Amino acid sequence: MMQTCPLCASRDTHHYHRDARRDYRQCARCELVFVPPASRLDPTDERAVYDQHENSPDDLGYRRFLSRLFEPLRGRLAPGARGLDFGAGPGPTLSVMFEEAGHPMAIYDPFYAPDRAVFERRYEFITATEVVEHLFEPGRELARLAAMLPQGGWLGLMTKRVASRQAFAGWHYILDPTHVCFFSETSFAWLAGHLGMSVEFPAADVALLQKR
């Protein structure tokens, strides 16, 4: 069955991998690997997985994990720049780290902080850590976020990247049933070009896109 890429909307996609639970396809244009809609969880089951997460600003290990995005992005921001943490989850932490550094923050999460008024504002930077792999429509969602940034604004993304078909087959990241989109550097390069942004990879799993 033909499947449309949820990032670039190309219909040129092909089989990439299959495991005991689901199929994975890859786009020939942007190289996104994705799970077809029939294999996605419904919202109730999806939230049940997220409810098991125990992230907290008091967890120093979690703060160190987030620092891979926090440190390089903070160094690129003007003092007092306003930000949005998109997909903040049940224990918002990155937003707390930026607020401690002097950056006013808004948060959004479809399950835990569903105030859609945040999309009516503009921000100097937007973050999404361990989020894009969960998005059913990453092309649409990331374009909406980019549109909320001014020229020079930053979109900071953190997700593990596809390395090769062989590595993918044994990758722990695909075992999470809520992970449905898997980006490579090529995927981010396509996204940046499509959105009129530049992209750099300053740390493991981190992509920083700046609006031209």
UniProtKB/TrEMBL annotation:
<dbReference type="Pfam" id="PF13489">
    <property type="entry name" value="Methyltransf_23"/>
</dbReference>
<keyword id="KW-0808">Transferase</keyword>
<dbReference type="InterPro" id="IPR029063">
    <property type="entry name" value="SAM-dependent_MTases_sf"/>
</dbReference>
<protein>
    <submittedName>
        <fullName>Class I SAM-dependent methyltransferase</fullName>
        <ecNumber>2.1.1.-</ecNumber>
    </submittedName>
</protein>
<dbReference type="GO" id="GO:0032259">
    <property type="term" value="P:methylation"/>
</dbReference>
<dbReference type="GO" id="GO:0008168">
    <property type="term" value="F:methyltransferase activity"/>
</dbReference>
<keyword id="KW-0489">Methyltransferase</keyword>
